[in-house]
Design brief:
about 170 residues, alpha/beta, Rossmann fold, six-stranded mixed sheet, 5 helices, 6 strands, globular, binds guanosine-5'-triphosphate, binds magnesium ion
């Protein structure tokens, strides 16, 4: 198989990154109770692609470790806990600083997952774009945003298929 790619899964702590990585690997939701320390690296086959997923640790003290993974990245999945309204400003800052304004990720497709839509008060994708002020960043690059509930298995394959479509177009 010569179609290979590296997909970075970024986002704040407890957004659902490891839950996503596990869902992609096993095809269903498994409760993850342990915050990631360092990163989890997995290889999965998806629509004819061999994809290495890097699921990083979102806690602030570990974010310096993200730097090592930017070179050679094919696409970024940025997971947001859309029900954690108080954390949205920090999610916005991290998304801008580490992704949109990151020269090492210039031109790389970015998908945002507005996750935990099953929780009361979760903001949906259009509102999230407004609250995070993403309009301008979105225009500048290949970007998509999906509502998701990994718990319910909704929006996950849609978001990842979008990523793989971008890989197909860029190969
Ligand atoms: N209700 C709900 N809970 C979710 C969803 N996705 C993940 N979670 C829960 O959110 C919590 C944190 O998930 P993790 O996947 O460990 O979060 P993470 O982004 O990997 O966090 P760090 O490793 O600390 O960066 C866990 O209790 C998950 O079960 C979802 O779609 N809905
Ligand atoms: Mg994790």
């Amino acid at each position: 198989m010569d179609k290979k790619a590296k997909v970075l899964i970024l986002g704040l702590a407890a957004a659902g990154k490891t839950t996503l990585a596990k869902y992609l690997r096993h095809g269903d939701f498994t409760e993850n109770t342990v915050p990631t320390i360092g990163q989890n690296i997995d290889i999965l086959e998806f629509e004819g692609w061999k994809i290495t997923t890097i699921d990083v640790a979102g806690q602030q003290d570990f974010r310096f470790l993200w730097d090592a993974h930017y070179p050679g990245t094919s696409a970024v999945v940025f997971v947001i806990d859309a029900a954690d309204i108080e954390a949205l400003p920090e999610a916005r800052d991290i998304l801008k600083q580490h992704v949109f304004n990151n020269p090492l990720l210039e031109g790389i497709p970015v998908v945002v997952m507005a996750n935990k839509q099953d929780l009361y008060g979760a903001v949906d994708a259009p509102l999230l774009i407004q609250l995070l002020g993403l309009h301008l960043d979105m225009q500048d690059r290949t970007f998509a945003i999906f509502d998701s509930s990994i718990l319910h298995g909704s929006g996950v394959i849609e978001a990842f298929s979008w990523v793989v479509n971008q890989l197909e177009m860029n190969k």
